[in-house]
């Protein structure tokens, strides 16, 4: 009972603080109409692989419409962003984990580029002090984003689109609000990789990954051992676990050579979908599911996975005489 009361008090205080910083920071952004012909856009929240790939239609559409495209990324996505032909510049921050201390890092970036961008696009759903402060300090000519949770409508946003059921569709909606049309499909920044250039296999290459950035989405080690031991014994596939690579481009190249990727919900599932590979996944949030027609969801038990692999890759048996 005491714990519940404390939780309710904490929630009330949090809501009041949110309303306070909105009152202090959320001011209507005055558009300088004479300067809107400028096309220098900054796209936020590309620090994680999935978040970057969700926004590739947005990035591509803006670039093809004549924008100079800059994105905010991290050391995790740096290689992909720098190789993306539709991205002109990447601002690399240390905000991958989205910690409270990121408010200072983001404030420093905003002050460095204050007044530089004509357009700023930010799709974070929650009302965070660091995002509001960043918008005010960055001072772009126009701010475009999505409606917030808790029914908050930010005055600072000149264009605010409803959040769609899937993140890729939110990117498309933002483009539509700007009068831009683009296809609903991913692309991915990549460079040639020498590591797997001579890699060949006569059997279908099946890749496996059971690790995610959070423990709750990772496979239990005991379950994983049982599953991988079974898959290693299947004679008609070349089974390989995905290991840590020195370069993301090596990982992308390896996935591109595969016939199917078995993975938990993480960046690897989105890389595979951007490469139009089959993805077998244990569970996922529908709003961030890999966008591919070759997506299968199943329990990661030896029996379930083996049955699916057999149905797809097992050689046809000769008919009995």
Structural features, described:
The chain is α/β, with parallel strands linked by helices and 321 residues long. The chain has two domains: 7-177, Glycogen Phosphorylase B (Rossmann fold), CATH 3.40.50.2000; 205-313, 3-Layer(aba) Sandwich (Rossmann fold). Helices cover 37% and strands 15% of the residues. The chain has helices spanning 2-25, 49-54, 56-64, 78-83, 102-112, 129-138, 167-177, 221-232, 248-256, 267-274, 302-313; strands at residues 40-46, 68-73, 89-92, 119-122, 142-146, 159-161, 205-209, 238-241, 260-263, 278-281, 295-297. It has a six-stranded parallel beta sheet with strand order 3-2-1-4-5-6. A five-stranded parallel beta sheet has the order 8-7-9-10-11, with helices on both faces. Helix 3 runs parallel beside helix 7 and helix 5 runs parallel beside helix 6. The longest helix has 24 residues, at 2-25. It is elongated, with a radius of gyration of 23 Å. The model has no long low-confidence stretch (mean pLDDT 87). It holds the Pfam family Glyco_transf_9. One of its GO terms (molecular function) is ADP-heptose-lipopolysaccharide heptosyltransferase activity. This is ADP-heptose:LPS heptosyltransferase. One of its GO terms (cellular component) is cytosol.
């Amino acid at each position: 009972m005491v714990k519940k009361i404390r939780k309710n008090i904490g929630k009330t205080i949090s809501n009041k603080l949110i309303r306070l910083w909105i009152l202090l920071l959320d001011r209507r952004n005055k558009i300088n109409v004479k300067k809107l012909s400028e096309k220098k856009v900054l796209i936020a929240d590309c620090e994680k692989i999935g978040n970057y790939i969700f926004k590739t239609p947005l990035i591509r559409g803006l670039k093809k419409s004549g924008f100079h495209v800059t994105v905010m990324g991290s050391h995790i996505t740096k290689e992909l962003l720098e190789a993306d032909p539709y991205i002109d510049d990447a601002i690399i921050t240390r905000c991958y984990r989205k910690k409270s201390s990121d408010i200072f890092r983001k404030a420093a970036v905003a002050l460095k580029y204050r007044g530089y961008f004509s357009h700023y696009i930010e799709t974070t759903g929650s009302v965070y002090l660091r995002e509001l402060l960043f918008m005010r300090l960055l001072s772009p000519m126009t701010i475009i984003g999505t409606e917030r949770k808790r029914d908050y409508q930010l005055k600072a946003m000149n264009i605010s689109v409803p959040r769609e059921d899937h993140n890729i569709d939110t990117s498309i909606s933002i483009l539509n609000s700007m009068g831009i049309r683009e296809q609903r499909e991913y692309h991915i920044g990549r460079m040639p990789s020498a590591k797997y250039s001579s890699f060949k296999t006569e059997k279908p290459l099946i890749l496996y990954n059971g690790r995610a950035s959070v423990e709750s989405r990772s496979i239990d080690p005991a379950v994983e051992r049982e599953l991988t031991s079974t898959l290693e014994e299947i004679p008609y596939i070349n089974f390989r676990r995905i290991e840590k690579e020195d370069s993301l481009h090596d990982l992308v190249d390896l996935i591109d050579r595969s016939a199917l990727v078995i993975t938990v919900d993480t960046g690897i599932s989105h890389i595979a979908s951007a490469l139009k590979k089959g993805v077998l996944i244990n569970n996922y949030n529908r709003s961030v599911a890999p966008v591919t027609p070759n997506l299968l969801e199943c329990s990661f038990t030896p029996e379930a996975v083996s049955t699916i692999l057999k149905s797809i890759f097992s050689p046809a048996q000769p008919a009995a005489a």
